[in-house]
Specification:
The structure is a homodimer of 328-residue chains. Chain A has 328 residues and is of the alpha/beta class. The first copy, chain A, has two domains: 173 residues, 3-Layer(aba) Sandwich (Rossmann fold); 140 residues, N-(1-d-carboxylethyl)-l-norvaline Dehydrogenase, domain 2. Chain A has 13 helices and eight strands. In chain A, helix 6 links the parallel strand 7 and strand 8. The radius of gyration of chain A is 21 Å and the shape is globular. The interface between A and B is large, with 114 and 114 residues.
């Protein structure tokens, strides 16, 4: 899998187009299969964003871009591809139908990587002829820029497939994180889901608006998490006693009645309107395209700042630069 | 309160010392009252970190530092102080006893700001002689550097107290966030608690180590949250359909069995040892002091990067610089 020169992207929504852009930026040809006539344009837009971001982010010459082709069918897209990136809607039956179509057209060696954010790989591969080639590679928006990709194998996934995926995505300038046990939603989305649920309660109960919650994050712990994460930050909070002292102090709070533990808020029309209306008030002055540029510009600025310090996500960028320099 | 020239810090732990450092950096004299003989040294260490951070962060001359004095008692510390910053342990009875001692020694005009991260101001002020002066000003580590401070008034808090607090903390280069309804744990800690609880499950179930979880955050959504927060990021994920489209897509996931909703993990000795041991493996090569320098250096780098783009936390730094320039 280290010698992938052609990939197929099945599904070209926000995630699929982001994958296509990242692959193309790394000199890999991409054949795209998506029922929407706008999919090609969508990938080109993501690619334009990716070009701008990476030109600013790295100080070494970027690879010659891969070639994008639009395929008329899944079978046509996957022909000759060493990697098939599946980013279709989050329904098991739809994904399994795609795999059947893919397997009918490729050799058993081609790897199929699902972008699912929640479905377990053992379920995804249950009906496959060659399930050993199926791996979950779960990325994060914007896929062409954020380093994290969660790698999860199922019961029938070959170790060689997992190993190849870990190496391949690292080569794309990403941070592959091996998920040790197969669970629904893996690691990051379990955390995101917890925050999302709590945020819905805060909005529903009128404690905070979407703007308040975003500000509570981006002026506060978001700045900590961009570079250290949760546990290392708390280790510091424990002082010289470190994590043990922190746990001794903080542990009891777990039984405090702080969060809406027992229940999931009903996302009814009223709550949807509240959230959407607040979001309009907060961000409606920018188009989505403007927000994307703003986000990407900020991400590049942060990654550059961390690159110079060789820490966290900056390490990924530094390693990528060294890899490119070694190749050129 | 806009003319505070002397403050008293009651409690000089991580939070209290951080407050003292931020106040001193802004030219405000601080009298510290803490039973520990090491408290003065602790504040000096925080102040040294704050000096290094702010000298790097802003391009305008910093104010002349305030003077730190160590008081032998609460009464001595608060004499002549316009602001009393209470950062004692999170127990209502301890805090109420402190307020009684404070009120016996100051005029009714002096404002008492509690650093509590969870106790409601109405409870804090219940036994006060002049409860209108009590406000929660909940900061985040490192207090001398992170902009966010949650401002929460209780039933008896005067609007003038809340208004004065909002203005005062903005003047310190912070982002005061007014919490619209009084709830336990306010906004940020409700979100943090949700992530923390979920993280404990992931570690307990052997799905992820502390290092895995930190990496899932700092290579992924932590980078997004440092500059946009949750809702604006998701608005982008909704594409041109914005937040309404995102909610339509994502909403159903709320009923998926992803998170350990119903239960709080038992933080028993085994789990404490697992977490502390993993944290040692992850970060034990650095002393806490080294980790603090690493964290602060990264935060400064990120804030500088955002300052140049005038976005999010960068706006706070820009406003602070303009404020300093106008004064000098």
């Amino acid at each position: 899998m280290g010698e992938i020169t052609k990939a197929a992207c099945i599904g070209g929504g926000v995630i699929g187009a982001g994958w296509a852009a990242r692959l193309l930026m790394n000199g890999i040809d991409v054949a795209l299969s998506d029922p929407s006539p706008a999919a090609g344009e969508f990938v080109e837009a993501a690619l334009a964003n990716a070009r701008a971001a990476w030109a600013d982010l790295v100080d070494v010459p970027l690879p010659r871009e891969g070639r994008l082709t639009l395929a008329a069918s899944i079978g046509e897209a996957v022909a000759g591809a060493g990697l098939i990136v599946e980013s279709v809607p989050e329904r098991l039956d739809i994904k399994q139908a795609v795999y059947a179509e893919v397997e009918a057209a490729v050799t058993p060696e081609a790897i199929i990587a699902s972008s699912t954010s929640g479905i377990m790989p053992s379920d995804l591969q249950a009906k496959m002829a060659h399930p050993q080639r199926l791996v979950v590679a779960h990325p994060f928006n914007p896929v062409y820029l954020l380093p994290l990709v969660e790698i999860v194998g199922g019961e029938k996934t070959a170790q060689a497939t997992v190993d190849a995926a870990m190496a391949f995505y690292a080569g794309l300038g990403m941070k592959p994180l091996l998920v040790r046990k197969e669970i629904e939603a893996f690691i990051a989305d379990r955390l995101l889901e917890a925050v999302w649920r709590e945020s819905l309660w805060l909005v529903k109960d009128g404690v905070a608006t979407t703007q308040d919650i975003d500000d509570a994050i981006r002026y506060g712990f978001g700045l900590r998490w961009a570079q250290m994460g949760l546990f290392e930050t708390y280790r510091i909070a424990g002082g010289d006693g470190g994590m043990r002292h922190f746990l001794a102090q903080f542990g009891p709070c777990l039984s405090w009645p702080w969060t809406k533990l027992m229940d999931v808020p009903d996302l009814d029309d009223a709550l949807i309107e509240t959230i959407a209306g607040q979001s309009d008030a907060q961000s409606g002055q920018h188009s989505i395209r403007e927000l994307m540029r703003l986000r990407d510009g900020n991400l590049v600025a942060i990654l550059k700042a961390l690159k110079e310090r060789g820490h966290g996500a900056g390490e990924t960028v530094g390693a990528y630069e060294r890899g490119l320099a070694a190749k050129s």
